[in-house]
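tokens incoming
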């Protein structure tokens, strides 16, 4: 069994594309996933699956996306990480030098999950924004670590920006959520 977290993009935002977490949990159970647990309304689902290869990961994402579309009639991108990947991601944040610093910066930190590792030329295109914002970002593997000087919702470093520049699906969570997901996935 492999423990996964699926991060859904754009549900329950501004009253649109509404999915209740109890319904989402049931949908995952109906797809054959085990030990399903959700965290907050933004679409974070921890579950177990006997699929464990990269090819299987694509099948899982597609299976979940298809089931959501069939039930709700709207598309929701689903990005997966394993337990090990999520815990490893937490150690990579280039904006954190110490645990104390993490506590002081936690409201400024965000993580954008990418569906795939972007091509080098697309990463270069994304850097064009650096002169237009005081916010900072660093792309590491298939993740983008973001430091916002102000609120994330005022930043130019949005999912849409990164999807357009990097040519891959993206969804973002604040660092408090990332820390909590790490705690939850570690308990199982």
């Amino acid at each position: 069994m492999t423990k996964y977290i699926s991060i859904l993009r754009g549900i329950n935002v501004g009253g649109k594309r509404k999915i209740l977490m109890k319904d989402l949990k049931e949908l995952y159970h109906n797809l054959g996933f085990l030990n399903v647990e959700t965290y907050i309304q933004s679409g974070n689902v921890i579950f177990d699956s006997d699929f464990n290869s990269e090819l299987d990961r694509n099948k899982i994402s597609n299976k979940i996306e298809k089931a959501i579309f069939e039930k709700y009639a709207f598309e929701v991108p689903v990005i997966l990480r394993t337990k090990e990947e999520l815990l490893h991601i937490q150690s990579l944040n280039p904006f954190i030098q110490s645990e104390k610093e993490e506590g002081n910066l936690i409201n400024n930190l965000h993580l954008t999950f990418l569906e795939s590792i972007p091509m080098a030329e697309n990463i270069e295109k994304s850097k064009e924004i650096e002169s237009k914002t005081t916010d900072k970002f660093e792309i590491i593997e298939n993740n983008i670590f973001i430091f916002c000087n102000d609120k994330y919702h005022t930043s130019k470093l949005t999912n849409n920006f990164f999807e357009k520049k990097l040519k891959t699906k993206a969804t973002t969570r604040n660092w408090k959520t990332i820390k909590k997901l790490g705690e939850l996935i570690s308990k199982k």
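note: The first helix runs from residue 21 to 30.
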